């Protein structure tokens, strides 16, 4: 619904007509009016008081009259309270909105659609996905869907870190300790199987270091001389030289991991249009270093290493090519950024990566801008905080990470126990129950990880996440199922809906009408938590509405029709909002 945008535009037009000052409609801030003040929507005047040299009351009265006159039948009254211009919207406007709202078009598309790439997940092939990866996947997938809701074209991509010393560690440990075992012979999921050997490597490495220290070496010497560490480094060298036996083992073990990843991605609902592999991209960017030298973006030191000086940008000097001519991580990332742009011609590229990489992405964007690569200005790092458990941080090399598969299975089990304790699913078939427990468990997990501003660190508490009465996914899922149950009893045929609104009816209509604006806000901020909060508030408001106002036994046929239509719109809006978070809402619970 366009009401908020119309209010912004009408205000901008009024300022131009009255004061001959041109402003953009985006500069006009519109909020819901505070409950203690009369009105429905509030325009904040402070931004314009100084600019126009008018008192808040004088400005408010002039704009109030002009906006009211430009929107006949929509605005019935206005008032000014301490620099806030408050408009009251007519009941007829809301009744028209409720009657005509299309559940298939709840969102007004952006007038300026873009092509946007969202890169997320970024797993390593030496271990399975864990709790931190879940926050990453849920954020990336949700941001992509929210941007699509706006009308943008979105390309979902993933970069797999499938080479390097950490991969060789798993490979060496498998050679030393597996005795030819495979995921097939052990019945283990491939990524878990390989991850176990990464942990075995670390255990063996620690033991060797302790033994060398006991024999008289310093800690630093022991860490360098540990035989298993030397073997991993030698294997990396063989891989880089293309040794056939090493490459065969690398491909075999990575195949096990990819099969495991695919199972997890399917379970959690992650998907990608294209997956890039670091083994194919790590040599990218070398030609860009030469171009950067020619453009004097980079400079060469006496030892032949190549650097960029970013001190004038508030950063420091950064190496882009070692003295032996090999690339560093930032070099291949520059090359991959160029490759992705050439392949997809995107306007913007969003990288969903943890906040420990904040500095890296500042450098990446700056270098791409200085090299004048296409769409360099559109590079954006969606930085997010780490997820911890009540017990503290996790470490994959020590095997203390919460595995994604185990966590999802645990959430489904908690959903089963909590749902069965409520005793409302006796008439469900075994297949329906299995689907319901999956939907509730995964919905609880996704909502809990998405309801927090991405920039904030968070502590994940499984029990809290599945409370049917709190700020949770299951509360919203239950509300949706409840509305569907009501509508099955009342039917959905709606005719006349009357000529007046009670306060809770109007409040629910306003909340529903705000959905499109909330989607835009979540898209602009790249923050799914805004949509999670919106969905929760809408569900809470519907429950208050239904507790006070009967639908089936409404005081008149008009009121019954009105409330049925509000129920239809609420269910559709909750479903679309939750889908954008990657969460299904059941028809029955």
How would you characterize the overall build of this protein?
The chain starts with a helix and ends in a 9-residue tail after the last helix. It contains 23 helices and 14 strands. It is 55% helix and 11% strand. It folds into three domains: 3-89, Gyrase A, domain 2 (2-Layer Sandwich); 115-285 and 327-398, HUPs (Rossmann fold, 3-Layer(aba) Sandwich), CATH 3.40.50; 409-580, Isoleucyl-tRNA Synthetase, Domain 1 (Orthogonal Bundle), CATH 1.10.730.10. It has helices at residues 3-19, 46-52, 56-70, 91-100, 131-149, 165-177, 183-186, 190-214, 219-225, 227-240, 244-268, 278-281, 286-294, 329-344, 358-370, 404-422, 430-450, 462-465, 473-490, 503-513, 515-525, 529-548, 557-580; strands at residues 30-32, 41-44, 75-81, 84-89, 115-119, 153-160, 274-277, 299-300, 306-309, 317-321, 348-354, 379-384, 387-388, 458-459.
Please outline what is shown here.
It contains 23 helices and 14 strands. By secondary structure, it is of the alpha/beta class.
Write the layout of secondary structure elements.
Layout: H1 3-19, E1 30-32, E2 41-44, H2 46-52, H3 56-70, E3 75-81, E4 84-89, H4 91-100, E5 115-119, H5 131-149, E6 153-160, H6 165-177, H7 183-186, H8 190-214, H9 219-225, H10 227-240, H11 244-268, E7 274-277, H12 278-281, H13 286-294, E8 299-300, E9 306-309, E10 317-321, H14 329-344, E11 348-354, H15 358-370, E12 379-384, E13 387-388, H16 404-422, H17 430-450, E14 458-459, H18 462-465, H19 473-490, H20 503-513, H21 515-525, H22 529-548, H23 557-580
Parallel strand pairs: 5-6, 5-11, 6-7, 11-12, 13-14
Antiparallel strand pairs: 1-2, 2-4, 3-4, 8-9, 9-10
Helix pairs in contact: 1-3, 4-20, 5-21, 6-8, 6-10, 8-9, 8-11, 14-15, 16-17, 19-22, 19-23, 20-22, 20-23, 21-22, 22-23
